[in-house]
């Protein structure tokens, strides 16, 4: 069944690796519903959708791609879904789910056909790196807001909140726990930090502590999923013309997946002379299927998690690792009541830490070449400051094209970049043209 069976696979290592990967990314079970509930979605339904989509897609990856990669609703795109699309644009979550589903269809077609490679070659690396960093800054900013550490201010736009407030202090405590455990290379540092902050919160009544075992463990309530299952509003999406939203979902999903899988394959020493690796096509197809499954169940874009590297480091080499991770996710269905008692102040530190983890690509940006550095910088800084991932992408792509043209380096501009820049300029000037 698995390639490793023909190569002396160490089953114990694969199981340990699968559980390790699960421990490092299970925080998404708590964090994703917390974010998507801000779009008006039912917390319980999103949690079930998160668990099921992560479990099903990760198991598919293990069986189909035979690689130790785990998938789940991705950080960044869930923030874009809630704060940019639903809250920022006033779009209903049903319409946003339809946009996610369309993104999945496009990504699936791109993954099956050789279109993906051509698109990948046309987008400059500086913008790919800047997008990752920008999303990290955006996520960290959201975490600081949820913690009450950053608050609105009429004079300065934002300012420091009351760090002595119970919620802020609880978030700071959780952040310290996560940072220390991460520094000590403890697997599951984010999860342990969330649990520690939650337990401390219960001691001080943030929120009310559980009265008994029934408040922590119960049989899965699949009926809750009815509020999000197949609730996609395609008619509304067509009426609103959410072309840019779909493009953003597809763009970020595609490059996030490419960067993650390439990094993991490099760690596995699988990269070939073409810059690809065995199972790449299967992973991308699985990733696209995961997005379709997630949209159907009721969650934002499903993507490959970089936390899979923790399982690889523990010796995971085949799809068995992914299957173990998927089964572990499935078992969390019995702990939904506990997750409902996790306060925002306990999950906020995880957002800040994830933001930190996404900063590493900034080291690869050529800051000496302003025609690459400035577009990457605008992409990064615009995302948190305009509270929109799409604004960052637009400014980055447009500025890259304009700077290359003005410096007579047009050979570095692909036809795709020219087309995207033209479309985005029209989009931004559209209010002035009507």
Overview of the structural elements:
With 434 residues, the chain is mainly alpha-helical. It has one domain. The protein is 66% helix and 3% strand. The protein has 19 helices and 4 strands. Helix 2 crosses helix 16 (344-357) and helix 5 runs antiparallel to helix 12. 54% of the residues are buried. The mean pLDDT is 85.
Summarize the model shown.
This protein has helices spanning 11-25, 27-36, 43-65, 77-89, 93-112, 115-122, 125-147, 166-183, 189-203, 234-240, 243-267, 280-297, 308-313, 319-331, 336-340, 344-357, 370-385, 389-406, 415-433; strands at 71-73, 150-153, 157-160, 302-304. It is mainly alpha-helical.
The overall pLDDT average reads: 85
Beta-strand share of residues: under 5%
Structural class: mainly alpha
How big is the Rg? Answer: 21 Å
Number of domains: 1
The largest β sheet comes out as: 2 strands, antiparallel
Please, how many helices? 19
Give, in order, the helices and strands. HHHEHHHHEEHHHHHEHHHHHHH
Separation, N- and C-terminal Cα atoms? 60 Å
Query: Which oligomerization state do the chains in this entry correspond to?
Result: single chain
